[in-house]
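Lab notebook, design round three. We kept the backbone fixed and only want residue identities now. Task for the bench partner: fill in a sequence for the structure below.
Input structure tokens:
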């Protein structure tokens, strides 16, 4: 089973010293004047800005972004899985929809987000629409490709034993598709944060993306990076949550 792994004992052993070294180099470059602080503030200044504005960020803007991410991801996961399964089950639908799925990912979100705001206003719906358009594609492709990974011998064995098509799906196709589906879900968890941020940047009145846009316009880069840090942590935690769910649902297959 191929899995996208974010962290593990071996990987963290190399990641943590590397991250610490990069932070030290970053801090030193700013302190020595090699990088202007209004362009790239020092990590200590970002941490201080996060601490000074923690109440505003954590109680006002973060819940807004989390709600947009959660609703958008849920719709992306359900819609993408259904679309992928439907295309795999019915060949004409596959031929009709697969090109449209690819085309949907070539559309610039930076241009479509204002259209969603025009349609839905500055509501949750406009942000969720951006998140859905951003995140459903990897889930749909993961489900579509995963359902094709079933071992033919298993299917033939179940047919010989009189299994129905539904039983073959439940006992063979879906279990074999889970690794690919979870890979798509992990990507969607990260993309959902990106979509929510884009939606808030272009037409929000609250949320971490909206806050970072305001701080950027005011040249308060430390505060802007504090919001970006929280957005990054949100994506990482979403990824890890899906990875944990994958570990619960999937068992390692031996070759």
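Proposed sequence:
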């Amino acid at each position: 089973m191929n899995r996208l792994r974010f962290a593990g004992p071996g990987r963290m052993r190399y990641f943590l010293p590397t991250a610490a070294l990069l932070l030290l180099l970053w801090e030193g470059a700013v302190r020595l004047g090699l990088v202007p602080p209004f362009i790239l503030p020092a990590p200590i200044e970002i941490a201080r800005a996060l601490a000074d504005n923690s109440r505003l960020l954590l109680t006002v803007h973060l819940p807004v972004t989390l709600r947009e991410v959660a609703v958008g991801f849920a719709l992306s996961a359900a819609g993408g899985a259904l679309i992928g399964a439907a295309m795999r089950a019915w060949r004409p639908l596959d031929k009709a929809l697969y090109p449209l799925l690819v085309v949907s990912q070539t559309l610039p979100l930076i241009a479509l987000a204002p259209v969603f705001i025009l349609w839905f206003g500055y509501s949750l719906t406009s942000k969720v629409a951006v998140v859905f358009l951003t995140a459903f594609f990897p889930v749909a492709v993961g489900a579509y490709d995963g359902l094709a990974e079933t071992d033919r011998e298993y299917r033939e064995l179940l047919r010989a034993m009189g299994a129905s098509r539904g039983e073959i799906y439940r006992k063979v196709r879906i279990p074999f598709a889970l690794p690919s589906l979870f890979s798509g879900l992990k990507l969607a968890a990260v993309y959902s944060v990106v979509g929510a941020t884009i939606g808030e940047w272009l037409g929000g009145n609250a949320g971490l993306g909206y806050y970072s846009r305001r701080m950027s316009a005011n040249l308060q880069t430390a505060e802007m990076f504090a919001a970006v840090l929280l957005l990054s942590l949100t994506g990482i935690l979403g990824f890890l949550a899906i990875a944990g769910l994958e570990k619960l649902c999937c068992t390692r297959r031996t070759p």
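Keep this in mind before ordering anything: The mean pLDDT is 86.
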